[in-house]
Amino acid sequence: MSHNIHTALTIPPPDRQKPSLKVNAFEASRTINSALTPLFPYISEGCIAPCASIMRGGSDALGGVFQHFNTVDEVAVVFASEGTGMRPGDVHVGDKSHVVGSFMQDDPNSYILIVVTQRQSEQGVKQQEAFTLNCAECQHVLLDRKFDAVENYAESTGVPGGYFGPLGTIMECGAGAQEFNANVELRTCDNCGTVNEPFNIGVWQWDNYMTNAWCVDQSLKSYFEFNGLTGKKRADQVSSEIK
Ligand SMILES: [Zn+2]
C-alpha cells in the first residue's frame, strides 16, 4: 500500500481563535510586568508559550529562591545578559524539578533578558506544576503547592470562550508566596525551628501580574454582564458568534 507522505504531514490551517501574531522580545520587554510574562496570549492546551523575563541587579533583586516542578520541558534562551553568570545565546533545558534563584547580583549595572518557552500539554493530558519553598537553614520543605498548569479560562470564570487566561505558573506561584508570607507558622521550620524570612515576591514581580490579571477578570465579567450575556448562555452565544 502506498503512503502519501504529503497528506500525512499536512499542517492544519491556523486556529481561528489564535490568529498569527509576532512580537519582538526586546520591544515587548519594555512593558512586561513580571518575570515569565507570556509574549503571546496563547497559553491554553497545546500552545507553544514563550514567556519573557527582564531583570536588573541591585540589592532589591536578591533572594526569591524556590523549587519549581513542571511536567513539560522549559527551554530558556538568554537574549542578553551582563553580570549574571549566563551568556547571551545560552540555551538551557532544566530538569523537570529545578531550583530557581535570582539570576542577579548586587550590582545595578547587571541585567538579563531571557525567554523561557514551554509547550503546554495537549488536551486531555494533565500538565502539573509545583511551587515549593524550603527552609533556608536545613532545606526541610515548608510549603509544597501543587497545581494544574492549564485551566479552562471560560469554565473557571464564566468569561466567553475565545479569551485566554493568565499564566497559571505566575498566578499559583504568586499565591503560594503570598500564603507563605502571611503565615508565620508556615515559615517556622518543623525540623530545625528556624523562622524563615518572607519570600521576596518583588524579585519576580508576580504581584504586578496578579493584580492586573484580577482587574482583567473583573473587567471582562462586567463587560459581558453589561451586554446581557450571562453564564453558559453567553459562552455558547459568543463562541457561535466567533465561528
Ligand atoms: Zn529548617
Describe what this molecule looks like in 3D.
There is one protein chain. This protein is of the alpha+beta class. The chain has helices at residues 5-8, 25-28, 153-157, 168-182, 184-187, 206-226, 231-242; strands spanning 37-38, 48-56, 66-70, 74-82, 91-93, 97-100, 111-119, 128-134, 141-148. Residues 231-235 have low confidence and may be disordered. The protein has one domain. The radius of gyration is 20 Å and the shape is globular. It is 27% helix and 23% strand. Bound molecules: zinc ion.
H/E order of the elements? Answer: HHEEEEEEEEEHHHHH
Number of helices: 7
Biggest sheet record? 5 strands, antiparallel
How much strand content do the residues show?
15-25%
Strand arrangement, major sheet: 1-2-7-4-5
Rg value = 20 Å
Distance between the termini: 38 Å
- Globally, the shape reads globular
Estimated structural class: alpha+beta
Q: What's the helix and strand layout?
A:
Layout: H1 5-8, H2 25-28, E1 37-38, E2 48-56, E3 66-70, E4 74-82, E5 91-93, E6 97-100, E7 111-119, E8 128-134, E9 141-148, H3 153-157, H4 168-182, H5 184-187, H6 206-226, H7 231-242
Bound molecules: zinc ion.
Overview features:
243 residues; alpha+beta; four-stranded antiparallel beta sheet
Short note summarizing the structure:
With 243 residues, the chain is an alpha+beta fold.
